Amino acid sequence: MSKVNRSGMWKITFNSPAVLGFGAICIFALILNIMTAGYANSLIFSTYHSSLTDPMTYVRFITHVFGHSGWDHLIPNMSYILLLGPLLEEKYGSRSIMYIILVTALSTGIVNYVIFRESELLGASGVCFAFILLSSFTSFYDREIPLTFILVAVIFLGQQIYEGLFLSDNIANFAHIIGGIIGAFFGFAYNRRY
Q: How far is CA 135 from CA 18, 31, 50, 84, 101, in A?
Protein backbone atom coordinates (compact mmCIF):
# COMPACT_ATOMS: atom_id res chain seq x y z
CA MET A 1 0.00 0.00 0.00
CA SER A 2 1.50 3.35 -0.99
CA LYS A 3 1.40 6.39 1.24
CA VAL A 4 -0.56 9.40 0.06
CA ASN A 5 0.61 12.91 0.94
CA ARG A 6 -2.66 14.71 1.72
CA SER A 7 -1.08 17.95 2.88
CA GLY A 8 -0.64 19.21 -0.67
CA MET A 9 2.97 20.17 0.16
CA TRP A 10 5.96 18.70 -1.62
CA LYS A 11 8.49 17.03 0.63
CA ILE A 12 11.86 15.38 0.24
CA THR A 13 11.95 11.73 1.30
CA PHE A 14 14.88 9.65 2.46
CA ASN A 15 13.94 6.90 0.01
CA SER A 16 17.06 4.76 -0.12
CA PRO A 17 19.04 4.66 3.13
CA ALA A 18 21.70 2.14 2.04
CA VAL A 19 22.48 3.91 -1.23
CA LEU A 20 22.31 7.42 0.24
CA GLY A 21 24.46 6.34 3.18
CA PHE A 22 27.01 4.79 0.83
CA GLY A 23 27.10 7.97 -1.26
CA ALA A 24 27.49 10.16 1.82
CA ILE A 25 30.45 8.09 3.03
CA CYS A 26 32.07 8.35 -0.42
CA ILE A 27 31.69 12.15 -0.42
CA PHE A 28 33.03 12.37 3.14
CA ALA A 29 36.01 10.17 2.19
CA LEU A 30 36.84 12.36 -0.82
CA ILE A 31 36.62 15.59 1.18
CA LEU A 32 38.78 14.05 3.92
CA ASN A 33 41.29 12.93 1.31
CA ILE A 34 41.44 16.42 -0.21
CA MET A 35 41.90 17.97 3.23
CA THR A 36 44.74 15.54 4.07
CA ALA A 37 46.49 15.90 0.68
CA GLY A 38 45.98 12.23 -0.20
CA TYR A 39 46.83 10.72 3.18
CA ALA A 40 43.27 9.52 3.91
CA ASN A 41 43.15 7.44 0.72
CA SER A 42 46.56 5.97 1.46
CA LEU A 43 45.69 5.11 5.06
CA ILE A 44 42.01 4.11 4.81
CA PHE A 45 40.31 4.43 1.42
CA SER A 46 42.46 2.37 -0.95
CA THR A 47 43.77 -1.17 -0.89
CA TYR A 48 47.23 -2.31 -1.90
CA HIS A 49 49.68 -5.03 -0.99
CA SER A 50 50.66 -4.36 2.62
CA SER A 51 51.68 -6.51 5.57
CA LEU A 52 49.12 -9.01 6.82
CA THR A 53 50.20 -8.10 10.36
CA ASP A 54 48.85 -4.58 9.81
CA PRO A 55 45.17 -4.51 10.94
CA MET A 56 44.47 -1.73 8.41
CA THR A 57 45.16 -4.17 5.58
CA TYR A 58 41.92 -5.96 6.46
CA VAL A 59 39.98 -2.72 6.95
CA ARG A 60 41.11 -1.49 3.51
CA PHE A 61 39.77 -4.68 1.89
CA ILE A 62 36.35 -3.08 2.46
CA THR A 63 36.89 0.68 2.77
CA HIS A 64 38.58 1.07 -0.62
CA VAL A 65 35.14 1.32 -2.28
CA PHE A 66 34.57 4.64 -0.49
CA GLY A 67 37.77 6.28 -1.75
CA HIS A 68 38.06 8.21 -5.00
CA SER A 69 40.95 10.09 -6.56
CA GLY A 70 38.88 13.22 -7.22
CA TRP A 71 35.48 14.59 -8.16
CA ASP A 72 35.93 13.41 -11.76
CA HIS A 73 36.32 9.87 -10.41
CA LEU A 74 33.48 10.08 -7.87
CA ILE A 75 30.75 11.74 -9.96
CA PRO A 76 30.37 9.05 -12.67
CA ASN A 77 30.33 6.29 -10.04
CA MET A 78 27.76 8.13 -7.92
CA SER A 79 25.64 8.83 -11.00
CA TYR A 80 25.24 5.11 -11.69
CA ILE A 81 24.79 4.24 -8.03
CA LEU A 82 22.18 6.96 -7.42
CA LEU A 83 20.36 6.08 -10.63
CA LEU A 84 20.19 2.30 -10.15
CA GLY A 85 20.57 1.91 -6.39
CA PRO A 86 17.18 3.22 -5.19
CA LEU A 87 15.29 0.98 -7.64
CA LEU A 88 17.34 -2.03 -6.54
CA GLU A 89 16.97 -1.13 -2.87
CA GLU A 90 13.20 -0.85 -3.27
CA LYS A 91 13.05 -4.30 -4.88
CA TYR A 92 15.61 -6.19 -2.75
CA GLY A 93 15.73 -4.18 0.48
CA SER A 94 18.43 -2.15 2.21
CA ARG A 95 20.05 -5.14 3.89
CA SER A 96 20.52 -6.96 0.57
CA ILE A 97 22.03 -3.88 -1.08
CA MET A 98 24.45 -3.38 1.82
CA TYR A 99 25.39 -7.06 1.58
CA ILE A 100 26.07 -6.76 -2.17
CA ILE A 101 28.25 -3.69 -1.55
CA LEU A 102 30.16 -5.55 1.19
CA VAL A 103 30.69 -8.70 -0.91
CA THR A 104 31.84 -6.61 -3.88
CA ALA A 105 34.24 -4.58 -1.74
CA LEU A 106 35.72 -7.63 -0.04
CA SER A 107 36.03 -9.64 -3.27
CA THR A 108 37.73 -6.88 -5.26
CA GLY A 109 39.95 -5.96 -2.31
CA ILE A 110 41.18 -9.51 -1.81
CA VAL A 111 41.70 -10.15 -5.54
CA ASN A 112 43.68 -6.93 -5.85
CA TYR A 113 45.80 -7.90 -2.83
CA VAL A 114 46.54 -11.43 -4.06
CA ILE A 115 46.88 -11.01 -7.83
CA PHE A 116 47.75 -7.36 -8.49
CA ARG A 117 50.50 -6.94 -5.92
CA GLU A 118 51.89 -3.76 -7.48
CA SER A 119 48.65 -1.82 -7.89
CA GLU A 120 46.49 0.29 -5.63
CA LEU A 121 42.70 0.01 -5.90
CA LEU A 122 40.08 2.55 -4.87
CA GLY A 123 36.64 3.59 -5.99
CA ALA A 124 33.09 2.31 -6.28
CA SER A 125 33.20 1.14 -9.89
CA GLY A 126 32.94 -2.53 -8.85
CA VAL A 127 29.75 -1.64 -6.98
CA CYS A 128 28.49 0.23 -10.07
CA PHE A 129 28.98 -2.86 -12.23
CA ALA A 130 27.29 -5.05 -9.62
CA PHE A 131 24.29 -2.70 -9.72
CA ILE A 132 24.29 -2.57 -13.54
CA LEU A 133 24.15 -6.36 -13.88
CA LEU A 134 21.72 -6.74 -10.95
CA SER A 135 19.36 -4.19 -12.55
CA SER A 136 19.04 -6.33 -15.68
CA PHE A 137 17.14 -8.88 -13.55
CA THR A 138 14.18 -6.65 -12.74
CA SER A 139 11.78 -8.83 -14.75
CA PHE A 140 13.41 -12.20 -14.15
CA TYR A 141 11.38 -15.37 -13.83
CA ASP A 142 12.62 -18.78 -12.72
CA ARG A 143 14.16 -20.85 -15.55
CA GLU A 144 14.41 -17.82 -17.84
CA ILE A 145 17.41 -15.69 -18.76
CA PRO A 146 16.42 -12.10 -19.56
CA LEU A 147 17.67 -10.82 -22.91
CA THR A 148 18.51 -7.55 -21.14
CA PHE A 149 20.93 -9.47 -18.90
CA ILE A 150 22.65 -11.03 -21.93
CA LEU A 151 22.96 -7.65 -23.66
CA VAL A 152 24.22 -5.88 -20.54
CA ALA A 153 26.72 -8.67 -19.87
CA VAL A 154 28.01 -8.59 -23.44
CA ILE A 155 28.22 -4.80 -23.63
CA PHE A 156 29.59 -3.91 -20.20
CA LEU A 157 31.63 -6.98 -19.31
CA GLY A 158 32.79 -7.48 -22.89
CA GLN A 159 34.11 -3.92 -22.94
CA GLN A 160 35.96 -4.49 -19.65
CA ILE A 161 37.53 -7.73 -20.86
CA TYR A 162 38.60 -6.05 -24.11
CA GLU A 163 40.06 -3.04 -22.30
CA GLY A 164 41.81 -5.28 -19.77
CA LEU A 165 43.46 -7.30 -22.52
CA PHE A 166 44.24 -4.65 -25.13
CA LEU A 167 44.36 -1.24 -23.47
CA SER A 168 46.50 0.09 -20.67
CA ASP A 169 44.36 2.89 -19.26
CA ASN A 170 44.98 2.50 -15.52
CA ILE A 171 41.37 1.49 -14.84
CA ALA A 172 40.83 -1.56 -12.65
CA ASN A 173 38.94 -3.60 -15.23
CA PHE A 174 39.10 -6.69 -13.03
CA ALA A 175 37.09 -4.85 -10.32
CA HIS A 176 34.42 -4.04 -12.91
CA ILE A 177 34.31 -7.67 -14.05
CA ILE A 178 34.14 -9.02 -10.49
CA GLY A 179 31.42 -6.49 -9.61
CA GLY A 180 29.45 -7.55 -12.67
CA ILE A 181 29.78 -11.22 -11.79
CA ILE A 182 28.61 -10.51 -8.23
CA GLY A 183 25.62 -8.51 -9.51
CA ALA A 184 24.70 -11.33 -11.91
CA PHE A 185 25.06 -13.94 -9.16
CA PHE A 186 22.81 -12.04 -6.75
CA GLY A 187 20.37 -11.28 -9.58
CA PHE A 188 19.91 -14.98 -10.20
CA ALA A 189 19.94 -15.90 -6.50
CA TYR A 190 17.48 -13.26 -5.31
CA ASN A 191 15.07 -13.63 -8.19
CA ARG A 192 14.75 -17.41 -8.00
CA ARG A 193 12.69 -16.81 -4.85
CA TYR A 194 10.09 -14.62 -6.59
A: 16, 30, 35, 7, 14
**Considering the entire predicted model, what is its pTM?**
0.86
Mean pLDDT score of the chain, rounded to an integer?
87
Taking the C-alpha atoms of residue 80 and residue 76, their distance in angstroms, rounded to an integer, is: 7
Map 22-42 to HEC letters: HHHHHHHHHHHHHHCCCHHHH
pLDDT value at position 194? 47
Q: Which CATH class is domain 17-191?
A: mainly alpha
**Torsion of the alpha carbons at 189, 172, 124 and 105, rounded to the nearest 10:** 50
Residue boundaries of the structural domains of the chain:
17-191
Which comes out higher in pLDDT, residue 108 or 194?
A: 108
